[in-house]
Amino acid sequence: MTEPTPGHRRSRRRRGRSRRPVNSLRTVQEYSAGGLVVDGLDHGIPVVALIRTTTQHGRTRWTVPKGHIEIGEKAEQTAIREIAEETGIYGEVVAPLGVNQYWFKAQDRIVHKTVHHYLLRFVDGELRTDDHEVVDVAWVPLHELPSRCSHADERELGLNAARLVAVLRTHGPAALPPLPQNPPRRRPQSHSRAGNSAAPTKPRTEAGSRGAGQPT
């Protein structure tokens, strides 16, 4: 076999250096908010509003309504607005449910997403599916949520919600955890959707029932 010339070796090294590994992609921070609107919060069998969306691979899944925090909004204001836009119903925030964080790949970047979730009391409205990203919306008994939601962190939200409903009914609103003091968002942010493959370095995680303050 003929030994490659030095020039060939240099050419091969240049081609190798031009390949960009996944971990060299820039990371961006994005912040969203949403939650569970409960009808029957004080008595009876509580039901919550879930939405059904389509994944990049064409599968459908039930999930918790949520969306990006816009300029001038606090996280809890975003939760109310996004839930109304995606389900047609309105709620009032009564307690924090938790803060979920996860990573995914979107086009030319890695997105670190932080989602603030809240427990809300149903106030008004009727379920509808006007949002182009939502294919269905339904009232689901709260105790069925862990078997309906696709992601483990959202199933955990259902367990947190059930605990808070029990606390509210037994001890009253004063026993619920206080809302974090999040300032309104002051800067715009990108609106990314997950690509065909998730970022391999970080799993979805649950950050606890009280959550953290929202960076601005």
How would you describe this structure to a colleague?
- This protein has helices at about 5-20, 75-85, 145-150, 150-170, and strands at about 25-40, 45-55, 60-65, 65-70, 90-105, 110-125, 135-140, 205.
- It is of the alpha+beta class and about 220 residues long.
- The chain has a single domain (about 25-205), classed as Nucleoside Triphosphate Pyrophosphohydrolase (Alpha-Beta Complex), CATH 3.90.79.10.
- Strands 1, 2, 3, 4, 5, 6, 7 and 8 form an 8-stranded mixed beta sheet that branches.
- The longest helix is centred in the C-terminal third of the chain and has 20 residues, at about 150-170.
- The protein is globular.
Q: Domains counted in the coordinates: how many? A: 1
Largest sheet: number of strands, sense, barrel closure: 8 strands, mixed
Question: Which residue ranges are poorly predicted, with pLDDT under 50 across at least 5 consecutive positions?
Answer: 8-21, 195-216
Strand content: 25-35%
Structural class: alpha+beta
Number of helices, where a helix is a run of at least 4 consecutive DSSP H or I residues? 4
Average of pLDDT = 82
The CATH architecture name reads Alpha-Beta Complex
Per CATH, the superfamily is Nucleoside Triphosphate Pyrophosphohydrolase
Q: CA-to-CA gap between the ends? A: 62 Å
